[in-house]
Design goal:
Chain lengths: ~290, ~290, ~290, ~290
């Protein structure tokens, strides 16, 4: 088995790394806040104190951090990934970034003789724990062979999409639709409530028809219960909507639905909900509490 | 078995009426364009030439026409439904109307001693043929007993929601979400195409995750194939979005996502697509053909 | 001089009627809340207790009420305008209504031998007091001769636009732009404040350039002073935005900017500001007070 | 008189530089496309071949290029501005950039002992020719003394706004409102045309009321005449809307009106109008030509 590395042990990275360990992979880990690697070490991982050391120890290093700025820092900071990359090294960045960031990182990795895949995922904390993520990969197809075992431990499905930029574009497109859909769900529930209907009846009817999807059931129930414990923080959804609108800008595609959903998400952040789950977006539409 | 009547033999009404006949009900039918009842007569229905005659012959009359104006005309025109209503008569209007129209019709029916249910449906032509509609009913709960056999022949699920207005409000809420979702799907596919991705890959990834729903698969494939043959005409979706935005107006609920989806739908109608299927909305976003 | 009548003595109607009296016209007045005619009677008007009596006493009757429902009631209720209309009577409805309402009223007036003009205005309370309204008229051009003296007392400019419906369409178009512009101003001021800039500097810079308009100075200053005393209530602006979006619907014109401005206005109404001045719309964008 | 320099001789920069020459300033000029400096040289300017040489020759150098990328290149490229900055040198960047870019440039200038002002302008080509721009300045207040003479030659009004970032934030706020307003104007004219009204009547009525502004008259007339010759290219307006929406993102201010206006502008670019004047945005709303 290849020696794997994992950078980033947050809400998503921690359970993803754990699945690599459970699948029997020798794993070297790093996280800025070192305490978050404790359970991984207890399960058998080796902890180091810089991204560089991870890359030095591993054949293929996976990374899962929260946004483009963090992904760039992990790669290019002193003692960053780029310092340890050379022939034979593979780097798989699974963070959600914009295509331009994926390109900057990927080109630098390749320039130093390494192989690179951008591989963002669809799915949040529970699918991450269950190893049921959907993985969208692009970049060096030759790295897919060595990385696939790791993908199989972390996910239920991997799709290879082509050249660097394709996977981040796809991820942003999917999350853009998620942002529009959770805004639509918020509008549906708020309108139902205001019309004297029961939100449970709306979810029931949705579940029986062509619009039935797992997200409506899960997030809809959370909204009805006012349960906003963060699975996927609203500020990350809003970041994805922003990046998607920018991608549309880049390709001259008008995205009015995504653009207004982005503004509703900003309003929800403005009123203090940015660290709550993305389903807290409904609070931007409900009348303020008396 | 109760004697049933059916007014309206269009895209939806015809297969719904056919299911009543197949279930063994004695059926009296009427349609403005008489030729559209031909297959129903061949299957055993009795055709008459006014709504009034339908109500006279039936214990419970169902109606399925295209919009509030048509529903009002069927009820209140000379030789309309209201002329034949009295004690013992039941009227079930399954057309999609705004709550105010449902109220006008229902109150008039009740004033003449009849029983009334508004019972719009979720589902389009194929579910109508297959007897797999989702039926949302409200009004005189006492009429549910006599109408349920008809509902069971036409649908897979009936939900009773309360007083007149509740079912049309629920229907508009569901169709509002459908309008927002098909706009989101259009944005996703157009952005994917512009980014050099394959639309099929997007649909694949959607199908594997929390956003997976039958509509994305069906309408997404149709969009990729440029197949806009009307199942649910775009002009009807746009009408539903308009009525939903007005309902939000009535209840002071801001619906930015639905409001812009409505404007995108109007743009698609403006460029000539209003009689195409609702999935033709994607053409308002794609670059014009060279 | 022609004998004039005036129906509606609210925020706008009262000063408009006063200008007719000051110009020397013999005026018969009516208002649902009779107390609001007190100052007009003191200035020389004759007060009556039904719209019918106004029309009976006057050659040309002007009406200024708040919305389509009120305009219809004034015309068609028992003892309404329509009862008193016949050959030689002129009716000039200056209320802001949708074109379909203008048509219903106008056609009924004409059917009874009367002449009709729809004549909505641009301008709020201060221009009403100063006789500086902009009047948009349409309908029976022959009535313009007898009505012009009244228009000259109430306004600074009259434009005759054509057939019934043209003036209400024009009024809605203008007020739609006003709704979009006051939303844009709200966004500008809120963004400036959040960026650490002074709102006064923004208004200063606007006043010096191509975007300089009286509304920005007036409403902008009111927003900075948190002065929301109603000149033009927000609920009326929202009604106009709603009617404009519907007019766009009727003509298949996509109006995304107006549609979202309408939703922002609804949000402001939802949080309790509907009886405040339209400039209170900025509160829907500012962060909630601590 | 101070020795001035001017970098950028495009649509805006050329007439601005010409006004400095006409006011009697000794001017050193540079433009990437050298031919565009011809008229300036004929009027007495000295042409050089790099930004560095401009800064070397001048006490205060003004720059006017088209976007953040160009502004960064002028400053940081080999033989760029930064190479020539030291104690006593002043740099005034009048390009429209986002606040982060202004900060990067300004901090670098200051780090080398120079003084810096960001000074974007309001107004397009004609006001540039007439020396009637509105100038928004921020940064080193001490540089205002030496730069003011240049500002007075180029503009009618200068406002000093504070620390670096304040002027670019203000400029983006103003241009965001311009984008929303020209979208509102497009909606107004398109709705008027579709309702059978004359666009000239709408412009007439606007000019008489509280919404009267120079932009409506100028751009409105151009739209009616289908005259889209570029004064301010649509692609620049769309860039400004994009940067404004991002600034709102940064400060958590929801900007729904600006966001949808941005999408309408993108649609207009998508259909081929990005090099036309910003008033070509109306073509995204008008029905396609038969």
């Amino acid at each position: 088995m290849a020696k794997y590395g994992f950078i980033g042990s947050g809400l998503m990275g921690n359970p993803m790394a754990m699945n690599l360990i459970k699948a029997g992979h020798q794993l070297t880990v790093y996280n800025r806040d070192a305490a978050k690697c404790k359970n991984l070490v207890e399960a058998g991982a080796t902890q180091v104190s810089t991204p560089l050391e991870v890359v030095a120890a591993a054949d293929v290093t996976y990374c899962m951090v929260s946004d483009p700025e963090a992904a760039m820092a992990v790669c290019f900071s002193p003692h960053g990934v780029i310092q340890g990359v050379g022939s034979g090294k593979g780097y798989v960045d699974m963070s959600t970034v914009d295509p331009q960031t994926a390109e900057k990182i990927g080109i630098s990795i390749q320039a130093r003789g390494g192989e690179y895949l951008e591989a963002p995922v669809s799915g949040t904390v529970q699918p991450a724990r269950d190893g049921q993520l959907v993985i969208m990969a692009a970049g060096d197809e030759s790295l897919m062979k060595r990385a696939q075992a790791g993908f199989d431990a972390m996910g239920k499905k991997t799709v290879f999409l082509g050249e660097i930029g394709a996977a981040s574009s796809m991820k942003l497109t999917v999350n853009m639709m998620m942002g529009s859909m959770i805004t639509a769900l918020s509008e549906g529930l708020t309108l139902a409530e205001a019309s004297g209907l029961k939100g449970e009846d709306l979810l029931d009817i949705l579940a029986a028809g062509a619009l039935a999807c797992p997200m409506f059931q899960g997030k809809g129930s959370a909204m009805l219960a006012n349960n906003f414990t963060a699975n996927f923080p609203l500020k990350h959804l809003q970041k994805d909507l922003r990046l998607a609108v920018q991608l549309g800008d880049h390709h001259r595609v008008p995205l009015a639905n995504a653009a207004v959903s982005n503004e509703v998400a900003k309003r929800a952040c403005q009123i203090g909900l940015e660290n709550d789950d993305m389903c807290a977006i409904v609070q931007a539409l409900r009348p303020p509490q008396a």
